[in-house]
Task: structure prediction
Amino acid sequence: MGKMSSGTASLIAEDEKRDIYKSNERLKRYIRDKVNQLLTVMGTRPLNTEELDDDTLLDLDPIGIIALSFEQVLEHLKETNKKLRIAKDQLQAVFDTAGVCISIVDPELRIVNCNEKQKELLVSGNKEVIGHYCYEVYCGKDSPTLDCPAIETIETGRPVFIREVKKKGRNFQIVTSPLKDIDGNVIGVIEVSIDVTEKKKAEEGMRQAEKLAAIGLLAAGIAHEINNPLGNILGYAKLLMRESDISVGQREKLEVIVEQAKRGNEIVRGLLDFSRQSRPAFASVSMNEVILKALKSLSNQIDRQGIKLVTNLTKIPMVEGDPKQIEQVVVNLLLNSIQAIEDMTDRTISIETGYTDSGVEVRVIDNGHGIPEEILPRIFDPFFTTKPVGKGVGLGLSICLGIIKDHDGSIHVESEKGKGSKFSFHIPAMSA
Ligand SMILES: Nc1ncnc2c1ncn2[C@@H]1O[C@H](COP(=O)(O)OP(=O)(O)OP(=O)(O)O)[C@@H](O)[C@H]1O
Ligand SMILES: [Mg+2]
Result:
């Protein structure tokens, strides 16, 4: 019995041993497979099954290899991250310091990002920008405009250029370009707006100067041609008036001829002044003296119209200029003010001098009918007048502008309909 039991026991032990061996082998295979799998992922060559005996498996330290590989991957990731951050910062700096407005919007026209220049010129106050619709933030509209270039770019996938658009009182040129994903789908739009307000003003100034020069030549030509026949008309009319045998009716008619010829003469003089083909005769000029002379020449008119004249002439440096021409500027400005207050009950004109960074300043202020906003940009144009025929030719201010420019100065106007006008001009002061 005892023998038998010992035989059975050894048999079981053999079976158990085989089972244990089998399960050991299975475990080793499992470990080998998994280790190989991991090493493949980590980029290390898979182990050769024959090479991987029990001892090598331990010697190899697969966990160690994996840990090391992780460390290397982490190091690499850190390095890449650092480079990416530097590239991103550089890109952001370029984005923010670019002299143009840049904005990125998604296909629903929601703002994804925009640079500082864009905020400065196209966003009012501290308005929220990111996530809001571009047409609300940049254009102040509830829905996109029909000619919105961003929509066209989203629809066509192509860039769109707009030569000129007015936004927030400034002029812009706009280019919209598609932002595409790796498969070429449009996932947004990059809007670049260039502020061309100053450029436009400069171009306008140049056009104006060319126009003035052309009109000046024409005016001078016509004026010279008209001067002679006008002189003859005037001369003969005066001769006829001296004749004793003319009737009262004929005399009255001749008076009209003389009066109209004189008026024609005045216009011709205006045209010649405007074309001013002679260069200014520069001398050292006291602006206050020039103003007093201009006031004297207009004193009759000022007294006759019961105008209250306020003068505030302060101590100012001399300027280098043509005293006659500067006097003409002052006279023209005063005449405009006199005409602007004609129909007012309270008639006041102030003339002041001062000294600023731009030089000697002269201000002519009236409480007349003022200038409506829509005609303000045109008042310096030659022949622009709102006065009835016979009262104004429209040359006064363009003559002033020409003279002031010849003196390297500037002329400004502040006026509103019904609120009077203030004209001021500057001429550089003479250095001590
Ligand atoms: N002080 C002012 N107040 C109101 N309007 C003014 C004033 N000065 C100029 N203007 C406006 O500007 C226009 C142009 O002025 P400008 O002096 O060039 O021509 P004008 O006075 O009409 O004619 P001219 O000076 O040749 O006799 C005027 O017709 C008037 O509408
Ligand atoms: Mg005038």
Summary: The chain has a mean pLDDT of 87. The chain is about 50% helix and 20% strand. Residues 270, 332, 336-337, 340, 366, 368-371, 379, 384-387, 392-398, 421 surround adenosine-5'-triphosphate (ligand 1) (CB under 6 Å).
